[in-house]
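Replying to the earlier thread about multi-chain prediction with a worked example.

Input:
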Amino acid sequence: MRIATKLMLFFGGVVVLFCVLAAALTVQLRNISRTYDALLGSSVRDMDRARVTQVNFKKEVQEWKDLLLRGSNPDDLARYTKQFRDRSSEVDAGAASLAQAVHDPEASALLQQFLAANQAMNEKYQRAYEVFIAQNEDFRAADKMVRGQDRQPTDLFDQVVERLNVRLQAEVQEQAAAARRNVRLALGLSGSLLLLLGAAGLITVRSILNRLASLQAVSERLARADISGLTMPVLGTDEIGEFGESMRGVSAAIEELLKMASAADAVHSH
Amino acid sequence: MGAQLVHIYDEVAKEFGPIGRMNLALLTKISSDRAKTEPDSPANLTAFQQAITQLRKQGGKT
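Result:
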């Protein structure tokens, strides 16, 4: 194969290698981006909604306490009653929506338990509220009716948040591990290809340099007309080989010249 | 061995002199001494015939 072809192939190989690597990296980046988008669109979003509902639930309980403490004032009673009911609606809607959205069976089951416990708590709160109003805003009886009732839903929702958090962390770790695997794969593949290309380039360059060195040695002897025992090395069929063939012609011509000069000397000396 | 090759050398020497012999060696890559030991193979004979044709076209020069 000619040197020009070898060099073009080597150059083409380098260009193709870098194009393949760039394409592989682009695909890899897209995959990582897609999986993280999916993570953000499901597990992270569920986690955020769960935390919002958790906070709303705690606020709902707080509104109830404010209602009992300050409900003797009609304005406060109206305000805290509204806020309590608003929070309660938000908790119901948030938990129901979350229950439909989550894919984790354990979290889904916990949410169903929470919804049932929350409904039971709300019914008790409603009865306590009626007692509170009926007894002229005396909070003691109402408080006694619902004391500790928020504990079970609170615990259940804490478990929901904990479960979603564990799942989210596992998915994040899984994504990170997949990204690391892909990076190792890309590095291994690109390293192997670069090694292969480097080895091919090195072999080509060494072959060219070795044959040029042989040719240089022959050329130096021809320059001195030192052709005694001179043999032309086999240099292949590429440009260096063709050059070597030309040198064989030069060598033969010098040999012929030396022979004629020697014959002429012999004639003159007689 | 190489009798025909040697004969061609002789012809070229008569026709074009020493320059012709040198150019024949240059073109065929075979000197007259080596022509004595080289076989009269078809490849060698073809190379010599082509060389002598070229020399005749160019008056003994390459």
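Chain A has a mean pLDDT of 90.

Feel free to reuse this layout for your own posts.
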